[in-house]
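Title: Prediction job returns without error message
Component: structure pipeline
Severity: low
Priority: P3
Assignee: unassigned

Description:
Job completed but the reporter wants confirmation the result is attached to the right record. Sequence as submitted:
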Amino acid sequence: PEGWRWGAERLLPLYAVFLVFWAVGLCKAWQRHETTLALQWGVAHRKQAEVVRPGFRGWPRASPVTGETELYYPQHRRLAKYLVTGLVIAAQVVMMVCMIAMLYAAFFCIQSTDFSVAESLLLNLGCSTVWGISLELLNWVVWSRVAASLNRFENHRTAAAHETHLIAKIFVFFFIDCFLWFFLLAFFQIPFGSQIDGLLHKAGVVLDRPFERSDWVPRLGMTIGAVLSLTQWSMLLFADAYVPYWWSARAKRREAERASSKPPPPGADHAAQELGRAGE
């Protein structure tokens, strides 16, 4: 029934708060269990050895602890590189906001225009599919490479620090890409759609159809389904099967072109003539 569904939806924020506390409590409980096992096994005071990353660059100096020669990279230089990373993330946020604004405008036009059911369904499905494909391409082709390049640019000393910062960058990039649109729908358009229509009406914008909650809730599910099912599986198959084959064929073709463009070594023509005469 409609009344029961509306009452259940009011409980969703409480359920979300419960999940947050449950996740934090689970992590803390696991840390306590891990510490207990380390004490029982007698390895509580052991630390993982820090391995210097092979790609680390720096200046040699005498270690203040051991006196041995080691590579050193000044912290102020790394802080300047952190600033560059922050600027790149800010540029990504601006870019994603612009893309999501375009997607939101497209969905808003579809919902506000008097299309037939079939036309509206096709347009919604098309927008969701284009968004899902763009999301996968941005995540796995653009932002993952940008994150790896920024991590190498920051020049972390140990492999553990390098991996930790890489995970953090990929998480930030993917979180913005994957969830910004869904946050806009779930916490802006669906709760306040009627107020947005009222503001547009005061501004003189005439809509063919007013805001209807029943139109936007399935649209949220449609975009989630497009990302998690159709586009993700197709992009994974494309990336796992076709891209490695294309990249390998491209590398072989370049190698063949490079080999054919090289001039023959001195005396090669004379040696070939001698071999031909010997064969006769």
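Comment from assignee: result matches the submitted record. The CA atoms of residues 61 and 67 lie 9 Å apart.
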